[in-house]
Specification:
heterodimer; A: mainly alpha; globular; B: FAD/NAD(P)-binding domain; FAD/NAD(P)-binding domain; five-stranded parallel sheet; binds flavin-adenine dinucleotide
Chain lengths: ~100, ~400
């Protein structure tokens, strides 16, 4: 099944602007765009955590918040989401870009 | 007698002690401040020590000199904060009960968190930090005789206090090597976890250009995994290796360990705060100033200063049973030393990124925003005098705590 991403609003950097439009199917589609063919249980554990934090605080969690919150090591996080995990998960989880703090 | 307790006598705690000594009735209130270190360090000065511009003795004075005589000063380690019981335990068994608590325990670097940094053999030999007085001094000794090679500066993780300090270090290093006639023998790389030179887009572009002009290589989105002392490379999680002869680190910055031990902090031991009122989100008689909070503002002395009036007013309101006012806007004002006796000034808050213009007087300055000028350099150098003589004592500064759009160009 494919999802119709044209109904979803994205900002110029490809991040969803309304986290409430997000569905699991959208996540799978966005993951493919990020080069992740299938989302495993470990991937989902991180996405679920980020959704939870993101919806509560209005902000995508940082790398350290993800590793502390899920107990997954930074190394494993990079294995699951190569290159920039915090940014990738945020995008797949339908959240804004994690702010580089001031 | 009621107790007003301040934890930490650094920039923020000292200012609060001075203001509260004026505001509270000494018949009714006892003001106590605790710190483990009798020395007050002018931390912005650490930046200049590696280049021989300041000596270690320029940046340290006794804490007692900056605290009013009516304030009880206790030198000792805070071991546990129990905000549910309104009490604090010090090392050695002493317990202090309080009515109001201000947490001003700041932030500090944790080099122990990065594998190979302090335990790989190169620490303080060809690996240095400059966020501590010892590190800055050791680096100064190294640079004095260095003949050149590959220098790599890395920020391990954000947030760090004084987020412009890495850029200043690079600009000063470039200038220092030029002055010594060895710039052509030094390759400078800046490896940062950020997507650019700085956090905010316009400033990042301008400051990024200033790096490029000076031939400083920028490696972005760099999440450092380890320092390999044998191969002399740093390695990121995505397997990018950067070779070094001299590695300068800004390690992860964290809040005080006692915050974590007391269960009061986030994953970096910063205390969750209402970012506009500076009240703890959990305990209504606990207030925050400076680096110790998780407010998404810069961790800087200037920010602590802009927090001061807001936190004092809100504590006094709270004592009268009034609601706190959401007046803190995240205002930060940072001089960025750019070498060759010039500097750049940035002024911003939670909502408004650094913009070009003049400061504090529209059209006149004397400081120019987001642009190099000699006046900005003198502003930075004057800051040391202002810090010791005006700022710490809670004196008036010639501008408001809230950021102003006057003089800024959109
Ligand atoms: C290299 C460098 C350059 C900088 N440049 C600038 C600049 O140009 N402009 C600017 O505005 N800011 C600058 N800063 C940042 C500025 O120095 C800090 O943001 C500021 O000092 C924070 O004040 P604070 O009161 O929150 O913490 P601090 O001043 O760090 O004070 C915290 C105090 O708490 C005490 N403490 C902590 N834990 C305990 C405990 N368990 N028991 C007892 N005592 C404890 C510490 O001993 C310390 O005295 C710079 C910092 C560095 C490192």
């Amino acid at each position: 099944m494919t999802v119709d991403l044209t109904q979803i609003s994205f900002n110029e950097e490809g991040f969803m602007t309304d986290p409430h439009q997000w569905t699991k199917e959208i996540a799978e589609e966005l993951a493919k765009q990020e080069g992740i063919e299938t989302l495993t249980a470990d991937h989902w554990k991180i996405i679920d955590f980020c959704r939870q934090v993101g919806l509560a605080s209005g902000k995508a969690p940082t790398l350290r918040q993800i590793t502390t919150g899920t107990g997954i090591s930074t190394k494993d996080l990079f294995a699951l989401y190569p290159k920039g995990p915090a940014k990738k998960v945020a995008r797949i989880a339908g959240l804004g870009k994690p702010e580089g703090c001031v | 007698m009621k107790t007003f307790l301040i934890l930490g006598a650094g920039t923020g705690g000292t200012m609060v002690a001075n203001k509260m000594a004026q505001a509270l009735d000494p018949q009714e209130w006892r003001i106590l401040i605790v710190d483990k270190d009798e020395n007050h360090y002018y931390q912005p000065g650490f930046l200049f020590i590696p280049f021989g511009i300041y000596s270690p003795s320029d940046v340290v004075k006794p804490k007692r000199n900056f605290l009013p005589p009516t304030v009880d000063v206790i030198f000792g380690e805070i071991e546990l904060i129990e905000p549910d019981k309104n009490r604090v335990k010090l090392n050695g068994g002493r317990t202090i009960n309080y009515d109001y608590l201000v947490v001003a325990t700041g932030s500090h670097t944790r080099p122990d968190l990065l594998p190979g940094l302090v335990d790989g053999g190169g620490w303080r030999k060809n690996i240095f930090d400059f966020y501590t007085p010892d590190g800055a001094t050791a680096l100064g000794r190294f640079l004095k005789f260095w003949k050149g090679g590959r220098m790599v500066l890395n920020v391990a993780e954000m947030p760090i206090k004084c987020p412009v300090a890495p850029l200043e270090f690079l600009f000063l290093a470039d200038w220092f090597f030029r002055e010594r006639g060895i710039r052509d023998k030094v390759e400078i790389t800046f490896a940062t976890p950020l997507p650019g030179a700085f956090t905010k887009p316009r400033a990042s572009a301008i400051l990024g250009n200033m790096l490029a002009e000076r031939g400083i290589r920028l490696e972005t989105e760099y999440a450092i995994m380890e320092v390999d002392n044998t191969k002399q490379v740093i390695r990121s999680y995505d397997e990018r290796e950067i070779p070094y002869d001299l590695f300068v680190t800004i390690p992860t910055n964290m809040g005080a360990e006692v915050i974590g031990a007391s269960g009061m902090g986030d994953e970096l031991n910063f205390v969750p705060v209402n970012k506009h009122t500076l009240q703890s989100v959990k305990w209504e008689n606990v207030w925050l100033i400076g680096d110790a909070s998780n407010a998404p503002a810069s961790k800087a002395g200037s920010v602590a200063h802009f927090m001061l009036d807001v936190v004092i007013e809100n504590i006094l309101r709270h004592m009268e049973g009034l609601e706190p006012l959401p007046k803190f806007d995240g205002h930060a004002n940072c001089f960025i030393e750019s070498g060759n006796e010039k500097g750049v000034l940035i002024d911003f808050n939670y909502e408004v990124e650094p913009l070009p213009g003049m400061f504090p007087l529209p059209g006149f300055g004397p400081f120019s925003l987001l642009k190099e000028s000699p006046a900005n350099h003198w502003g930075k150098m004057m800051f040391k005098w202002i810090y010791w003589n005006v700022l710490l004592k809670g004196g008036e500064m010639p501008f408001e705590s809230q950021m102003s759009m006057a003089g800024k160009w959109k």
